[in-house]
């Protein structure tokens, strides 16, 4: 007769935990990595109507380094969308059982997946092996999420293909991360998110032999375990270990079925006497000259900004991703700027066609003119990005106010010299005149920036 001996089971459980020595091999260590050059975007923009965007960047501060996977899901009306990044690799994970990632999520999406490919397959026609997980949402703590390698199921264009050949663990040749819209699934997500990543590892299973039957009991150290111990007359009879897998989430994703609502007529970019195009991101990849200038230039800075081109098969634009991480005293900023040489003396407004998503909609545009040191006066103006549809924001050049280290100066004594604008910047912060802004992730999609009379 079996009976359950509470005291003995606790003792044995502790012994078991001590004996579990998990072996991990680091696959990607974003805390020390030099660059992320080999990571490439693969988003729904490979399809004709896709509108999403993903970018993986390193955030290097004086205190830490991490990877940030920014993603912006702009789904089709049926929810179809995906935004991902991937990297070619050569891994033999035959002896490993799971993939662990130390990460945290912020923003509107928490459903992600790992995507693997094998045997050098890389075309869109090849099967992918996918495992779904929920990012731990927090702006404080990093946590571990684990996907068992046996949970990677074959998918073809979002549809599970149970008959496809199994994942060849000995020859994994592509690793990817993806945020998805959730077409035909109960989960629907959209908007902007950031997944901050420290380390991705492969975990090797340590086996424990069930004493009574001689069979191997798999134990993954990072899973929660329920242990049932059966003891008869003070002799261990059987140990049952149940794994609680937090990632058991399978979604029926069907092939992306797109509907498309044609866009309204855009104002055609041109240089006429009434309009000067400063940046037309819909036509040219003019983001190379934009550089990040976030608070991480200072010791205590923790924010991140990325300015990147999104190319879909229909349109092109720039996206300004920000992960704003202010200090407790509300200082800090996520910003980019571009060195320019514009004579705007004939114009009265800067106009920007854009749309905002995420936690912050208030941005500051910053101008500098010739002869100013980088640390000197800067001319700023707040604007609120339209939320749902793209809109055109008109910023009067006369309303750019001079600031020095956050303090407003007298405009009469510090006039903006519009004949020679040498720098244009975009910034998210929480300064007194931007009280609504909060910590978190946001995206500003920009079609163009122009000057008009
Ligand atoms: C992969 O690793 C396993 C276990 O270490 C080894 O037996 C096998 O030969 C390796 N395969 C390749 C293709 O390297
Ligand atoms: C992995 O697959 C590719 C493509 O089939 C092949 O060229 C390569 O030799 C394979 N590598 C291993 C270790 O089997
Ligand atoms: C972060 O972890 C600490 C300590 O475990 C906990 O007190 C706090 O509630 C956690 N914060 C969040 C946002 O989960
Ligand atoms: C805000 O806090 C940071 C450190 O967390 C400090 O370096 C900075 O001087 C503070 N700024 C103000 C205006 O209090």
TrEMBL record:
Any GO BP annotation: NADH dehydrogenase complex assembly
Signal listed as a keyword: yes
GO molecular function: unfolded protein binding
NADH:ubiquinone oxidoreductase intermediate-associated protein domain boundaries: 28-191, 279-446
Alphabetized Pfam families for the sequence: CIA30
Keyword Signal in annotation: yes
InterPro entries linked: Galactose-bd-like_sf (IPR008979), NADH-UbQ_OxRdtase-assoc_prot30 (IPR013857), NDUFAF1 (IPR039131)
Signal peptide: 1-22
Alphabetized UniProt keyword annotations: Signal
Family indicated by similarity: Belongs to the CIA30 family.
Protein name per UniProt: NADH:ubiquinone oxidoreductase intermediate-associated protein 30 domain-containing protein
Organism: Microctonus aethiopoides
